[in-house]
């Protein structure tokens, strides 16, 4: 597939608490950065898709707060609730349908303004589950245990993901938590929920990302070379954690296969040059790598130790620092896409992988990776 | 792959009620999905993707797209959630259209639902307003609508009898629709004698709270024609969700509907909407909207809506029947409501509306209303669009 | 942000979404909860198509999308398939840490039930451990009518 491309990206700095910026302020900043990046004005934007979540924003119809800042006035506009990768997907369909030549996609949240434990507790079934008192952290800790049990991945290997990603973040001026840390420091950090230490968990963050997708016949007006959308797919697994094999991500495997098929990629482990994955917790980066076929089953931990996923490795993963270095939910997946765009353009500075032409980005919805959206992007049409 | 025309090939609704204690939300959804699949003679395996939506704070469940897969049939399928407040249902229909039109999916299941009985509707709606500016001084939906009606009445010398006439029409139409909630005829005097909620809006002028779900199956051009001989072709979609602070609203006019309808008419080459469109399912949450908004749709000139309605032109046997289903005044499961308008327009085109069928409909319009005076529109046609 | 605003003190408006909810369990979950409360029995549903027994019960089979379900009682004993131990007192927790959350596949069921394990040193919990439900008569017809699970030995 090469009928649409990403022509502009913009993101705010990812911070613990943007006390001076409301939702609209963040969106305004990211949208204008994306427009500048594309060499466009708001008049070049045919339609808008905003991405937000009413629970995280503490507001019914949360999209209402950002439509002005997204330039949606007097335009066709819609709102996806979920990760930004899903917003981008809907934005893509609005172009492929022939209805619009360009789509501006935004995704924002301010984790600092609410209590994430309660917000994610509300994702559990109100009758069968909620009173048990779980949240995203305790649910994902359970998944981490199941994954480690099956794959024999060690706590030290999980800790190495944190070391790598916080270390990578030192090259990313927008990252919240650039840090030089050791495996020992990760393992010595507070145990939040067995087996996840504090440094196995992503932080609570504020941030926004904006992206401009253009139809093939509109990419020529952009300031920079387009990054082509070669494949995109999403898929949802069962809701009840006990209905799934929690140690695997069947929905991600299916979504990735479809996206790679669309892109004509038969061996992702060798044909993909850079990946930005949804590492809300350390184990997820390893588990998602295996589920997507970017490495063999049960091997992610070993390949990580061998340096394969480092910036100078054969498949740099989360060279930006990933979500472990800053995790504004909803914006998170769209930021992954934007970071792949920067890599494919050669704009990643100290985090730049060596001449990548194909990259993948991933976003997640729901508990323990119930629903995934996978994008295959390329510098070449 | 590549862009393709889109048609609705099946619809399903629950029997909407004020309260469904016998099912949870997933199970309510499942009833509508099952009926839509039967209507299109498909199984869940035929469905390529699901678009679902509701308003989070009416049920207090986060990530509803994920939570609802047992009922929606979304297990190991692409599921995406759209939500835009009152317009959610019509936003979903527009979303399903683009998913299929993109060529990435051939059969998309669109689901809108709400169990309004599970929460305090006004309490939840109030959280839509800006927490710093509006929320402390403004409560719920009715006060904004009452302000709109008052402004219109002042501008065009309309009366509360005019509003009541619209309510009489929709409640009469509802008696012919077995799926809707309130099926009882009323008179103008009964409307005016019902309790005053917010001047000039009486209880019988407004929609109820409902539990309900609606599912619509959309298919790409070549598949649609194999599924049914009379697909409902979606000709065009348009919407306007411009943010409006309450103090900025052009009270008495629905500018978003005027703009979106002009975009639709331009796309489809419609010059005289009242003559060319056969039937309208208008998202009309209260009676006075049935006067004002048909002016914004261009069916009549400004200030002439009441006369048009009193003439009978919008009744079942009129020139352009509005809300043969009974409309929103008869039932309002909010996240489903806009999609019900779309499904009802599809039934009219497909000739499946049975007791509330308008004869020989070639073009139908369905709309959505919500947010802060936002509008969505879909144009439906019996003939395949030639653009 | 506009530089001219830099000297303005950031203002915060504290509030909360305060909407009361009444979630109707529906007939299916209602029967499960009533049986749990009145008979201390855990019920599942068996799909007439794939024969999988799901606990908690569903009106429709989540994988087959068919409505024909047969009710069946499952054991109050089962096997831990995944667990975690909450150590920090995060807001959603209703019990004092450490809290052991677990997915427990009850004997006779094909899916696992989400609940807690108590009365055991968290360090001794393993995947594969056998556990048994303890019931509470004070919790009414809620999932907390199972108060927790304990190791069988």
Briefly characterize the structure.
The complex is a heterotrimer of chains A (381), B (387) and C (153). With 381 residues, chain A is an alpha/beta fold.
Please characterize this protein's 3D structure.
- The complex is a heterotrimer of chains A (381), B (387) and C (153).
- With 381 residues, chain A is of the alpha/beta class.
- Chain A has a domain at 4-114 and 204-221: 3-Layer(aba) Sandwich (Peroxisomal Thiolase, Chain A, domain 1).
- Chain A has helices at 23-38, 54-57, 84-96, 116-121, 136-151, 155-168, 183-188, 250-263, 268-271, 282-291, 300-305, 331-345, and strands spanning 4-11, 47-52, 76-81, 102-110, 191-194, 196-197, 206-215, 227-236, 274-276, 358-365, 371-378.
- In chain A, strand 2, helix 2 (54-57) and strand 3 (76-81) form a beta-alpha-beta unit.
- In chain A, helix 3 crosses helix 12 and helix 6 (155-168) packs across helix 10 (282-291).
- The longest helix of chain A is centred in the N-terminal third of the chain and has 16 residues, at 23-38.
- Chain A is globular and about 50 Å long.
- Chain A starts with a strand and ends with a strand.
- Chain B is α/β, with parallel strands linked by helices and 387 residues long.
- Chain B folds into two domains: 6-119 and 210-227, Peroxisomal Thiolase, Chain A, domain 1 (3-Layer(aba) Sandwich); 122-208 and 236-381, Peroxisomal Thiolase, Chain A, domain 1 (3-Layer(aba) Sandwich).
- Helix content of chain B is 37%, strand content 18%.
- Chain B is built from 16 helices and eleven strands.
- Chain B has helices at 25-40, 56-59, 64-67, 69-72, 88-101, 121-126, 142-156, 160-174, 188-193, 221-227, 255-268, 273-276, 289-296, 305-310, 327-330, 334-350; strands at 6-13, 49-53, 79-81, 107-115, 196-198, 201-202, 211-220, 232-240, 279-281, 363-370, 374-381.
- In chain B, the strands form two sheets. Chain B has a nine-stranded mixed beta sheet.
- The mean pLDDT of chain B is 94.
- Chain C has 153 residues and is mainly beta.
- Chain C is 9% helix and 32% strand.
- Chain C contains one helix and eight strands; from the N terminus they run H-E-E-E-E-E-E-E-E.
- In chain C, strand 1 and strand 2 (53-54) form a beta hairpin.
- The longest helix of chain C has 14 residues, at 26-39.
- The B-C interface holds B 20-24, 26-27, 30, 34, 43-44, 57, 59-60, 69-71, 73, 75, 115, 117-120, 123-124, 127, 131-132, 135 and C 13, 15, 17-29, 58-60, 62-63, 65, 67.
- Strand 5 (191-194) of chain A pairs antiparallel with strand 4 (77-86) of chain C, so a sheet runs across the interface.
